Every structure is written in structure tokens, then in C-alpha cells.
Amino acid sequence: MHYRKLGSSDLNVAEISLGSWLTYGAGVEKDKAIACVRTALDIGINFIDTANIYGRGAAETLLGEALTGVPRNKYILATKLFFPMTPADQGLSRAQIKKQLENSLQRLKTDYVDLYQCHRFDRNTPLEETMEALTEAVKSGKVRHIGFSEWPVAGIKAAAAIPHVAKFVSSQPQYSMLWRDPEAEVIPYCAKNGISQIVWSPLAQGVLTGKYKPGAKVPADSRAASNAMNGFMGEDLMSDTVLKAVQNLLPIAKDAGLTLPQLALAWVLRDPNVASAIIGASRPEQVIENAKAAGHKLSPDILARIDNTLKPALQAA
Q1: Mind listing the domains of the chain with CATH numbers?
Q2: What is the pTM for the complete model shown?
Q3: What CA–CA distance (Å, rounded) separates 197 from 123?
Q4: 253: Cβ–Cβ under 8 A, 6 or more apart, which residues?
Q5: How far apart are CA 76 and CA 116, in angstroms?
Q6: Is 177 left (phi over 0), alpha (psi -120 to 50) or beta?
Q7: Is 54 a catalytic residue?
Q8: Which residues contact 71 (CB under 8 A, 6 or more apart)?
Q9: Could you say which of 54, 75, 116, 212 is catalytic?
Q10: Collapsing DSSP states into helix, strand and coil, what is residue 53?
Q11: 153-177: per-residue pLDDT in tens?
Q12: What are the residue ranges in the chain where pLDDT is below 50?
């Protein structure tokens, strides 16, 4: 495994990290989920990402059980808050940050999280209140560092301008060969201001594994076939134009000495501002195979071929 420094923090995170969105505590059986977590730790993946909203606490509870008995200094744990846990419990107010943090710590069976992230930007709470509450959480020792997910650049800049508050060290955007929006503003700003990317959906919900063929039925054991896990797979992502372009990446991956999923992961990691790519896994074998993407450098020729091959898909999106 290879590691990268997370922004201006003192954390060194694995280039490949394990996430729990739509999988643990929901779409993946408990024993398989725990096996994935243990396998990840065994092969050097030290960063595990979750959120209170994943399964409305179920993912955190599963991880709390899976990590029981593992020395706390052997893994880096991140969770998030923002989305409604109940109609009355949502957002980034001081009261919610305090309440949701305590609840997350209980489910995760730990005294602190290494990274506490604002899952989205809260336009209904004064930003000063949010940042002051996050700073209080850091001073309490229950949070080591703070981050955000899918914030607008204006919000990131505004938070940075508030004096005497904790500073963000991480950004968690959707980013993949098929979804490049962060390249416009978020990554350039963060790269200049000590904030690293921890990217979600680097395999585009599994589309970049090549398992979905144009004009064919989806595999019965795939995410697209699962009602619990396919809610975010839109028609654009599963269009024949996109799926054909992805199939055309296969010879490029072969020439690079990688599988297609490994190529997709190495692609996001080509950017030095990306500290880690979050994978989701339903089987330990997937964790092992995806982790092999760490440390691979893609040549300029391979990168150019990827861009040329995906032009139809990017234009369709």
C-alpha cells in the first residue's frame, strides 16, 4: 500500500480507502461486510469512511462491531453529518454537531474520529456557528480534523476566512474518469490551500469496472441489480454511449498492466491533490484487487488514450 498526507493534517492515509455508502449495514450481508473491513486492514488500508446517514446509523454500527478489538492507532476513521436522521435532526447547527457527533461515536464504539466531515453545505445555518461548533469538537478531543463533502468553492473560501476556527484538511467530491466537475474549481482551490481530496465513486457506481455491457442485462449480483444499492445509477451513466466507451477502455487497461477498475482508480490518483480514492466492496476479493491500483503511475500516452476514448461518454454526460 502507498500513503499520502491528508492536506495540512498529520494524517497519512492509504491511497485506496474503504467506504460504506449503500453497502455496509444495508446492501451487503453482515459477515461479508466485516470480512471486507478486516481484509482492508490486513493489506494496509488504514482509512475507513462512513456517515451517520448511511443506513441511518447502520453503517456506523457495523463498523463499530467490525473494528472491535483492533488497536485504535491502526486505522483512521472518518464520518459525516448533515442529512436528516429524523425530520428534526439535520443540518450543521451547533446543537446538531454536538448531538450527531455523540451518536456517531457511540455507534462506532470509539472516543474520537480522526476526520469529521460536513456532508453538504448548510444554507440554513450561519457558517460562523458551524465552524465554531466544529472547532469546539476538535478542542474537546472527540475530533482530530475536519473536512467537507460537495461544498461550493464560495462556501469553502468563506469558511477559510473566519478567524480563530479549525481549518478544513479534506474535501470529499464525486470524481472519476466519467465525472470531472471538481477539476474546474474545487481541486485548484484546495491544492493551493492545504486541502486534499478524498474522492467518492471513483468507479462511477461500478460502471468503470466494465461489468455492464451495452444492450445486455445487468449481472444479477451487481449493484445495478440491487434495489438497496442502485438508487444513484442514473440513465445517463447506464446509457449505451457510456457503456460502449467504457468497454473501449479495456485494451488501454491491458496495455497499462492493470484491470479496468485499477485503471480507473490510478486515473483519479494521478492528481497529487487526491489523497485517497474510496472504494465500496461487497467481497474481500474486490478489496484486494482494487488496492493493487495504489502506487501505479499512468504514462502520458495512456492518459491521452483514456481521454480520447471517453470523449463520446463525456459529451453525452
Answers
A1: 3-213+223-232+259-296 (3.20.20.100)
A2: 0.90
A3: 22
A4: 259, 260, 262, 263
A5: 11
A6: alpha
A7: yes
A8: none
A9: 54
A10: coil
A11: 999 999 999 999 999 999 999 999 9
A12: 225, 230
